[in-house]
Amino acid sequence: MPFETDTDDTLLAKAAELRQAFHLDAVERDKRGGRPVEQVRLLKQSGLPSAQISKEYGGHGASWLTILRIVREFAKTDGSLAHLFGYHHLPLNLILFRGSAAQRERWLTGSAAGNWIWSNSGNALSKTSSGERMATGWVVNGSRPFSSGSHIADYIQISWENADGARLTAAVPADRDGIVIENDWDGIGQRQTGSGTVRFVNLEVQDDELISSPDVPLTPYSSLTSLLQQSVLLNVFVGSAQGILEEGRAYTTTSSRPWVYSGVEQHIDDPWIKRQYGELYIRTLAATELADKAARSLGAAYAEGPSLTAEGRGEAAIDIATANVYAGEVGLAVSSEVFEVMGARSATTANGFDRFWRNVRTHTLHNPAEYKKRTVGTWLLTGEFPVPAIYR
Fold it and tell me: Is the pLDDT of residue 1 over 70?
């Protein structure tokens, strides 16, 4: 079968088992939205939330190639859980990059021991929360949109602006008084990600929960979180393409009927159907190879640690931007065009095949390919790498 999982990797083997469990009610949960409570329980039980955390702190110390392949594995049936698992790593990286030694010991050890799920409510483009300085910390009020995972998190990374407009960030328990999860996410896709609004109502944040300071400059190494975010998304796209292609193939070989003018008795004997599936497979395979190349580049950049240069970071950024653009285009195309070769009876809400397109479409709108193409083109023509920033 195409796109088989490398089950020699024990973490990927666990992910493959979870994927089968997630698949049982993926269509129904997509329709329902809300919180994937049982699926998160299974995820935590598997130990996969501590995949990235180094063995020093009690985690698995997995490579980024393995972690991003897990994202891809989940996306083969459930883009929401793939998104939640992938984005869970963003706050962990912030702590790794910018947290103090005491914070890393406290939060990474605790997270590995309890398989905590992390989320973030710190959208950098929306300055809609503010904090007032108190004796030993801050009191935060306001809200932040696009707070993916907040509805199922153990810990939340939050951000606010101080009186000078500087952005501060902290990590707090998700059940702390003053955190209000609005549960107002109403996207056409990624329906169980909880990517809606979190409100802060006189939320108290202690000084030892602040992560670094806005005065500490960003380095090539500490800026890798934005590349990780893009890596997660591109693997959601690739996994979605792989998933709908697998489900489409199964449907076509068992349920599709030949077109009245095709001249064949079986749908799979139609040359058009063969050619179309061949094209969809080739494009998906190419996206998969680019995704793995980008994951290896990300891993190599991480391995450099604080000594990572701007050039090393830039090379990874170009690989990831390239893979992201192509993965988004392939995810959209495959999840749409496959309906043509499955046939009219495939397009029902009961089948739920449309969830793959809706999931990819939802994320690609937040991450326009146009600007990444310009970034890659600029590098190709001038050798100029993208300046580290949100989305690049």
Answer: no
| Entry pTM | 0.97
d(CA 123, CA 3): 34
Sequence-separated (6 or more) residues with CB below 8 Å from residue 171: 91, 95, 103, 107, 118, 155, 156, 157, 158, 209, 211
Spatial contact of 161 and 167, defined as CB atoms under 8 Å apart:
yes
Specify the CATH number for 224-382; select among 3.40.50.410, 3.40.50.1820, 3.10.25.10, 1.20.140.10.
1.20.140.10
Integer Cα distance of 164 and 209 in angstroms: 20
Q: pLDDT at residue 391 above 90?
A: no
Using the predicted structure, report yes or no on whether residue 390 has a pLDDT greater than 80.
yes
Q: What is the mean pLDDT of residues 91-99?
A: 94
Q: Which pLDDT belongs to residue 192?
A: 98
- β-pair partners for 10: none
**Segment (H or E) for 241:** helix 224-254
State residue 19 phi and psi, 5-degree precision: -55, -40
